[in-house]
Amino acid sequence: MLPSPELSVIIPTFNERENIQELVKRLTAVLDGIAWEVIFVDDDSPDGTAALVREVARQDPRVRVLQRIGRRGLSTACVEGMLASSAPYLAVMDGDLQHDESILPVMLRGVKEEGFEIAIGSRYVAGGGLGQWAGDRQFASRFATRVSRLVLKAAVQDPMSGYFLLRRDVLEGAVHDLSGIGFKILLDLFASSPKPLRFVEVPYEFRTRQAGESKFDTAVLWDFLMMLLDKTLGRYVPIRFIPFALVGGAGVFVHLLVLWLVFDLGGARFAVGQTVAAVVAMTFNFFINNVVTYRDRQLRGWGLLRGWVSFTLACSLGAVANVGIATYAFETQLVGQTAWVLSAIAGIIVGAVWNYAVTSVYTWNKVKGA
After folding, report:
1. Which of 167, 158, 218, 223 lies closest to 187, judged by CA?
2. Is residue 53 in some structural domain?
3. N or C, which end of the chain is more exposed by having fewer CB within 10 Å?
4. pTM for this one?
């Protein structure tokens, strides 16, 4: 019977099948003499990553897999993996072999014996490096590092690192305040901790990816921005309201454009133009919010059609108020001779708050994996 693990290594994966066996082999070599386990948290990879991990686990009981269905996200995968472990020490690393596993014993010693609460695999301290990264990606990484210091509570040289080891009590102290947004869980941990964390940075050279696919894309950058906003403004407004409001701002231009085409150029009655513009803008807002604001709960296939129906039905009262108030303001010249533009905006404002409150509950809230 194996002893209870002292260290759990949490590895979020998506299409990393080709790396699994080599990674387990390397962990076995460097963690000799340590009671350890590895938990792969797989977001239902189409390449069969989870199935292969199960095959490996049948031969090695230190290997486990947590397969998530219907949701994606590196930060939430890391958190769920850590919470699924009973080990007092938790490490997080990527499954693409770019992190140097040989420094794990050094990181563990720093937390276990040297009084630190978290050890960070760092590319930006002496002895570390970015390897063969292209110049534009190095610039992006360094820029994000500088921006992240807006919410950081410590002078960490590599707060964007995805490779770290911490004590369980650090997770437990921060977990209820984590945003869970995006891919930089380390930054989230530091920003969410109720007290400053004692940390040490262990240098390593970032390696070249051997197999699998990079998770770095424009969506990752968006998630990073949303996480920073959550840590700065989240205490005042719901974080999703920020992109929802930005999308709504774009919807205002769509609304006014359609109203101009139908009413000003087309010669239709203002009430007709305002109604058409409200429906078109509502549809525009639904599809953009589905891709941006609720990307982690994104509706697809028939769910997209049902979501659109739900969205329009839930917002019907807001649309009625929109049209009614705008028409009343226009016909009574309540807003003066500037007529249709200000009348339309008055209706938009009334409908906007209702739209956010209702659709967040009825359109996306009950999506599987939300």
Report:
1. 158
2. yes
3. N
4. 0.70
